[in-house]
């Protein structure tokens, strides 16, 4: 494929509509379920997160706020909604819900296994094993 806008559009290289995901967590000891829509991360969401990091912002909250949307792609949360406070009238999201939302975001944005080229070969065993020892290994450098 020649790299150009038309071929990238055809290959799906630009973010698509949000993906529907079901999430589950517990609140007050009871299981909760919700349907969320997860927007694939984009160049813009990455640069916004870098900017937030430079300003000392909360990167996880920024990620949730930029990726969790309604079915039309409109964000459900602001960063302030995620971290809570007096201006929002509520506290921060519970950890379990934050974790399942981040997991859903990770699932939508994961790189399929085998897509990236491996840079190193795994070590091969010589077929022998070293005796186990509780003594610490020497930190002396070997002479070359």
The radius of gyration computed from the alpha-carbon positions, rounded to a whole number of angstroms, is 23 Å
Strand arrangement, major sheet: 1-2-3
Order of helices and strands: HEEHHEHH
Shape: globular
Distance between the termini: 48 Å
Protein name: Phage tail assembly chaperone, TAC
InterPro entries: Phage_TAC_12
Region (Disordered): 112-144
Biased composition (Low complexity): 123-136
Please give a structural write-up.
- With 144 residues, the chain is an alpha+beta fold.
- The chain has a domain at 15-109: 2-Layer Sandwich (rbstp2171).
- The chain contains five helices and three strands.
- It has helices at 5-11, 43-54, 59-67, 79-83, 95-109, and strands spanning 19-27, 30-38, 68-69.
- Strands 1-2-3 form a three-stranded antiparallel beta sheet.
- Strand 1 and strand 2 form a beta hairpin.
- It is globular and about 50 Å long.
- The termini are far apart.
- The model has no long low-confidence stretch (mean pLDDT 83).
- Pfam families: Phage_TAC_13 (PF16459).
- Residues 112-144 are annotated as: Disordered.
- InterPro entries: Phage_TAC_12 (IPR024410).
- This is Phage tail assembly chaperone, TAC.
- Residues 123-136 have a biased composition (Low complexity).
